[in-house]
């Protein structure tokens, strides 16, 4: 009865009748249960050194530790279900962590691939834009050079035309500055020289025809006036 004192104390603490428990369970079974479950090696305290009774151990609400099954030998020892559940839970948590890590690694890899692809596209676009701007720059440079060449040709033509006009203006100004009297004298002298040449030619011809005729020695002035004169001289005579 002393061995189950701790059990009675636990039952009484729960406001139950200890006599009903004694009637329902055999004392021999209770003795066997307590004798097999509680041992000095399984407990935290040594009963020999520490003055700590089994009843006090049960009173301290450590029945779950006391009521576990007997420990077997090392090769055939049965592992507790509680630890198994803990192991399973740990394995489940570890698997979840691994899955999350794999998912995280997958996302990082996708982000890295997308970043590399974006960088590649930007590099291609930058290269294309550089080539495009270089082509555009070359085209604009060629157009600018062509425009400068055409402008230089136009300027050269304009300069030549201005020079020609200046020469013409200079000639007209020199002619206008010369006096009308000098122009008339030059025309008159030319007409007189032409008349003298024609008169000498007619006299030569008459001498050849009639060398014995005395009239060939001196030609009358009236016949010399009837000789055809240059157009300028005739125009001047008509005006007179």
Structure description:
With 240 residues, this protein is mostly helical. It has a domain at 5-71. Helices cover 74% and strands 0% of the residues. It has helices at 5-13, 18-24, 27-37, 54-59, 63-66, 81-177, 180-209, 221-225, 231-239. The termini are far apart. Mean pLDDT is 67; it is low at 1-16, 21-26 and 36-52.
Level of helix content? over 70%
Provide the low-confidence segments as ranges: 1-16, 21-26, 36-52
Task: Give the CA-CA distance, first to last residue.
Answer: 187 Å
Largest beta-sheet details:
none
- Overall pLDDT, averaged? 67
Q: What overall geometry do the principal axes of the alpha carbons give? A: rod-shaped
The amount of beta strand, in percent, is under 5%
Number of helices: 9
Our Rg estimate from Cα atoms comes to 74 Å
**Order of H and E elements:** HHHHHHHHH
Class by alpha and beta content: mainly alpha
Number of strands: 0
SSE topology sketch:
Elements: H1 5-13, H2 18-24, H3 27-37, H4 54-59, H5 63-66, H6 81-177, H7 180-209, H8 221-225, H9 231-239
How would you summarize what this structure contains?
The chain has 9 helices and no strands.
List keywords for this structure.
240 residues; 74% helix; disordered N terminus; BZIP domain-containing protein
């Amino acid at each position: 009865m002393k061995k189950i004192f701790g059990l009675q104390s636990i039952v009484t603490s729960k406001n139950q009748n200890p006599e009903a428990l004694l009637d329902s369970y055999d004392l021999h079974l209770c003795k066997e249960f307590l004798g097999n479950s509680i041992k000095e090696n399984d407990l935290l305290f040594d009963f020999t050194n520490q003055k700590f009774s089994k009843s006090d151990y049960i009173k301290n609400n450590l029945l779950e530790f006391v009521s576990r099954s007997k420990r077997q030998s090392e090769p055939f020892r049965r592992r507790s279900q509680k630890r198994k559940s803990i192991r399973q839970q740990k394995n489940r948590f570890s698997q979840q962590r691994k899955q999350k890590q794999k998912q995280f690694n997958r996302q990082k890899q996708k982000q890295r691939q997308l970043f590399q692809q974006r960088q590649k596209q930007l590099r291609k676009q930058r290269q294309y834009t550089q080539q495009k701007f270089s082509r555009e720059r070359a085209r604009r440079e060629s157009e600018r050079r062509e425009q400068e060449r055409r402008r230089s040709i136009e300027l050269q033509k304009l300069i030549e035309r201005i020079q020609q006009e200046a020469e013409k203006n200079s000639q007209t100004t020199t002619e206008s500055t010369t006096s009308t009297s000098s122009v008339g004298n030059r025309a008159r002298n030319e007409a007189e020289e032409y008349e003298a040449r024609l008169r000498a030619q007619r006299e030569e011809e008459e001498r050849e025809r009639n060398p014995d005729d005395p009239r060939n020695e001196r030609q009358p002035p009236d016949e010399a006036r009837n000789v055809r004169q240059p157009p300028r001289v005739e125009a001047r005579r008509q005006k007179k």
